[in-house]
UniProtKB/TrEMBL annotation:
NCBIfam families: spore_V_AE. It comes from the Bacteria. InterPro entries: Spore_V_AE (IPR014204), SpoVA (IPR005562). Keywords: Membrane, Transmembrane, Transmembrane helix. The chain crosses the membrane at residues 6-26, 33-50, 56-73, 85-114. The keyword Hydrolase does not apply. This is Stage V sporulation protein AE.
């Protein structure tokens, strides 16, 4: 059990370190860094390595932004098998829609109840 926490921390931390290096060394903007990490997660899932990484690192691989790229590709490939090429378009929305919808709803509620200090 302790080793699961350890590897989740190490892998999740390594993903965050990569993002921080993009900020500090390569002077990328947050938008560029986020895009790079999402695309990296998509590519790693496309070659079939992200699911084994999640099995190994648990939340260390499933919580960072790279997991969103994984979810997009995973959904697209899954629906491709079931519905053909149309599934590529619908699959990525089907898998990620709950998370995106939740983010929109909770952001809206936060904007209603809290005022930023500026």
């Amino acid at each position: 059990m302790i080793m699961q926490y350890f590897w989740a921390f190490v892998i999740g931390g390594a993903i965050c370190v990569i993002g921080q290096i993009c900020f500090d060394v390569f002077k990328l903007t947050p938008a560029h860094t986020m895009t790079l990490l999402v695309v990296a997660g998509a590519v790693v899932d496309g070659v079939g390595l992200y699911d084994p990484l999640i099995e190994f690192a648990g939340a260390g691989a499933s919580v960072p932004i790279t997991s969103f790229g994984n979810a997009l590709v995973h959904g697209a490939l899954q629906e491709l098998k079931l519905h053909g090429w149309v599934g590529v378009l619908t699959g990525m929305f089907e898998v990620t829609s709950a998370g995106i919808s939740s983010a929109i709803i909770f952001s809206f509620l936060a904007a209603l109840f809290f005022k930023p200090k500026g």
